[in-house]
Amino acid sequence: xxxxxxxxxxxxxxxxxxxxxxxxxxxxxxxxxxxxxxxxxxxxxxxxxxxxxxxxxxxxxxxxxxxxxxxxxxxxxxxxxxxxxxxxxxxxxxxxxxxxxxxxxxxxxxxxxxxxxxxxxxxxxxxxxxxxxxxxxxxxxxxxxxxxxxxxxxxxxxxxxxxxxxxxxxxxxxxxxxxxxxxxxxxxxxxxxxxxxxxxxxxxxxxxxxxxxxxxxxxxxxxxxxxxxxxxxxxxxxxxxxxxxxxxxxxxxxxxxxxxxxxxxxxxxxxxxxxxxxxxxxxxxxxxxxxxxxxxxxxxxxxxxxxxxxxxxxxxxxxxxxxxxxxxxxxxxxxxxxxxxxxxxxxxxxxxxxxxxxxxxxxxxxxxxxxxxxxxxxxxxxxxxxxxxxxxxxxxxxxxxxxxxxxxxxxxxxxxxxxxxxxxxxxxxxxxxxxxxxxxxxxxxxxxxxxxxxxxxxxxxxxxxxxxxxxxxxx
Length: 475
Ligand SMILES: Cc1cc2nc3c(=O)[nH]c(=O)nc-3n(C[C@H](O)[C@H](O)[C@H](O)COP(=O)(O)OP(=O)(O)OC[C@H]3O[C@@H](n4cnc5c(N)ncnc54)[C@H](O)[C@@H]3O)c2cc1C
Fold this sequence. Notes:
Layout (H helix, E strand, L loop, with lengths): L7 H15 L8 E3 L6 H4 L13 E4 L3 H14 L2 E5 L13 E5 L6 E4 L4 E5 L4 H10 L2 E2 L10 H6 L7 H4 L6 E7 L5 E4 L5 H10 L5 E8 L1 E2 L9 E10 L3 H13 L5 E9 L7 E9 L3 H7 L1 H4 L9 E4 L16 E9 L6 H18 L7 E6 L20 E9 L5 H16 L19 H4 L5 H12 L11
Parallel strand pairs: 2-4, 3-4
Antiparallel strand pairs: 1-2, 5-6, 6-10, 7-11, 8-9, 8-10, 12-14, 12-15, 13-14, 13-17, 16-18, 17-18
Bound molecules: flavin-adenine dinucleotide.
């Protein structure tokens, strides 16, 4: 380390030295901003203000060379850094001892129609990739949020509504370029460092700063519609009917139908009348007739509205935009369970817990929600083994808090823990899994389950990042 010490002042000074050194080394489109600069506020915005810190500087890189230079200099000076792309996680923030490498301007997307691939730069968001893919008559299994970083979502496993047909997002990764902890820029593929390809498909952010990812793309026809559209509905019911809804939905969620995905969401009515509703948010890759036949048991319950529509692949995430906005205090935690929890009493208890949280914290917390989600499974063994270890999850239980008054922190956390407990206590210890795109405080075995997976990843981590430049997770 040059001129630093382990004192707080030493660390702050080291970060400042790196920033000063970088100024002359980065490309003309890059930017370095500190709290004093007008642009800082915008670049510092995040999906959630929970845990938000103020870094020594934000280095907004524009090229692969910028990324490599910044990582090398930080490593050489012993300065901590965090990459930030979509800013939707709790982890891309750091205090005055470190810097944020902001990748948002580094967002090129190249679709190769002939080779059926899409290559995204390290900071591109899901919406940047989906639109040009659709234009080329192709699709890839990205996540359900336009502004989430396409790299971070994919390399942390990548839950997706497309999984029954196309696998998890990480299953579609063909290759990557990344800057290692040693500052080298390497290509990772089936023929170049193949052992790292395993790691990148589920634990990628712990092994390097990924400057680009290439995904397999598939013709839109795999979506089982002639025009690249997908069938969707959002059918609301009064919360008092949750027992009937879960009784109709659970057998569908447990069925092996790869064309369907769905969620059951407990939240407050968007009409602001204070009532709690339960929403069946359903997706089907196929004709509207087949979709209606598949979901007939839900439709037969008579929701307020059935609200079905067909949405193009390019716009599949648009309904979710209101949930992607920056600011406020939000956090999602999830638990994966091996059997769909279909007992009405469990979900009636969920509604009760949700209502007592909102009653206590008031309308400013009313956009919080508790959900059951399931995605198509696809046939076992179809996808290569990788760091993603959640193939046995039948359904995910999610609790999302969203409040605007910071004082609600404790109450929100207590409710979230309780919301997961209500469902997961029915399973044996070790049967419940957690997802590292959502939480990173849970036991690591629950994030990388499966025989030999964790050991293999730990061995790779010791080889590629022994000092924990990209966090000490897996060390
Ligand atoms: C509204 C919403 C919807 C979501 N939907 C889905 C979904 O459908 N499927 C799913 O799987 N997950 C989903 N998630 C979870 C989401 O994928 C993770 O939170 C993801 O980490 C966010 O990525 P980001 O780039 O937006 O966030 P960031 O906070 O910018 O980055 C997330 C993590 O990745 C690191 N990172 C970012 N870019 C790089 C890079 N190029 N190289 C190396 N490390 C990098 C950051 O340091 C941080 O640790 C959703 C989250 C939200 C808030």
